[in-house]
């Protein structure tokens, strides 16, 4: 198959948060100061995916809703179905308007649960609620988000979460949906990879704002099924974990399976646990947990020594890498641009990359990661390995310096940082600066789900 030719879009114009001449009138030197008491916003957040299926978009929407609420803004979430009790415990209880029952639809190389009959609910919601703006996520996904673009209403901010280069569907959407996309007054992309798709295929520019991240407290972590012993010291190691649909090619489980004979030869006591929906034949000795909850997911990441992300493509951010790093695991991941970008300065010290789809290079990166094991002494006993297990590759030198880059990584994606950046985008589509600012005296805090 001949690949689609690239579609040339407008050049990227950087948008720093504070550029002279781009500030609202009330913020420019000499302008009148805003009032002492600033009006909170009424924001509608639209998620096309059902919350009963775990996903990065769903968690991002609920995390943003929690942060906006902590800043004094009123938030309503429009989405299919209902929020499960576990997510209520983690994110609080935002106002939710259901678009009805969700149905599975093939989308972006996966299966998404969306509500296809959302039109009437969306139109009524936009007409009856006094919303200052609507923030839609994945605006071209069938269901509620796309329906917002088809309906009149308040200003629309759109966040694009997918990275599908050379996508014929996205190219077609850029031509067919141009009139609908005119409803978008400001676009956000969760990574530079996602922004390139928006620019090249849709002809829009977008501000890059990553996914917010806030790890849950230890008290919320649930114990995994008793087929294995998380946290026990009876496993010689290393403990390797994989998360993702087992039968979805872009998640790359086949790469880890292909690497397994070499991994087992170097680390005879290696243990692999995989979690996710779908099914496929796994090597003997692996443990399959099936679909797990967010609490079980946190427990799994806390248990493992190495989290392996062998994804092949179509990944726009890599929130799971942040979750694994925050839990203290070392990350070994395919060198997808979105993964490399999200890890940043933590690369080489806490995360190691291999060529996507290359099982032999995965083994090499795993050897480097386990040979260094920055946190392993604290977490588990030393790992028995053969003499040739550690073979550093190019670019694998440990970064010097006493500062731990994980602290900077957490600060970069903490909701107090991400939420403030989103509010800055809201400010740009609203008539006054004061309308996009939280009430005076409201502290900027990150939600602790």
TrEMBL record:
Compositionally biased residues, Basic and acidic residues: 15-28
Matches recorded under InterPro entries: Glyco_trans_4-like_N, Glycosyltransferase_grp1
Keywords, sorted A to Z: Glycosyltransferase, Transferase
Biased composition (Pro residues): 1-14
Presence of the UniProt keyword Ubl conjugation in the record: no
Entry coiled-coil feature ranges: none
Glycosyltransferase subfamily 4-like N-terminal domain location: 54-213
Alphabetized SUPFAM superfamilies for the sequence: UDP-Glycosyltransferase/glycogen phosphorylase
Annotated stretches, region: Disordered: 1-35, 377-401
One of the protein's GO biological processes: carbohydrate derivative biosynthetic process
MF (Gene Ontology): hexosyltransferase activity
Cited PANTHER family: SULFOQUINOVOSYL TRANSFERASE SQD2 (PTHR45947:SF3)
Protein name, per record: Phosphatidylinositol alpha-mannosyltransferase
